[in-house]
Amino acid sequence: MTSLFAQEIRLSKRHEEIVSQRLMLLQQMENKLGDQHTEKASQLQTVETAFKRNLSLLKTRYWASVEEYIPKWEQFLLGRAPYPFAVENQNEAENTIQNEAQR
After folding, report:
1. Which string of DSSP letters, residue by residue, matches 11-61?
2. Average pLDDT over every residue of 25-37
3. Model's pTM, two decimal places?
């Protein structure tokens, strides 16, 4: 009888250890999941910020290009100059592309 009682106590303690370990692992999983959500939110914020910056740069470059070509188009439309894009030769276009890439 005593050996059954001792075995029951041992099993009860082992059960408590297992339940305690399970709770600890569940807490670690919850913490890791929370960290992953925080990191994902941070990454999403970074992506959104980069997208807005890139969109702003694209708009700025577009309008700078428009402003650059307005005088050429104005002269063309007034009949004082040839078609604006025929003016640029291949070397000028390549230089422009290289200059833009270095910015």
Report:
1. HHHHHHHHHHHHHHHHHHHHHHHHHHHHHHHHHHHHHHHHHHHHHHHHHHH
2. 97
3. 0.52
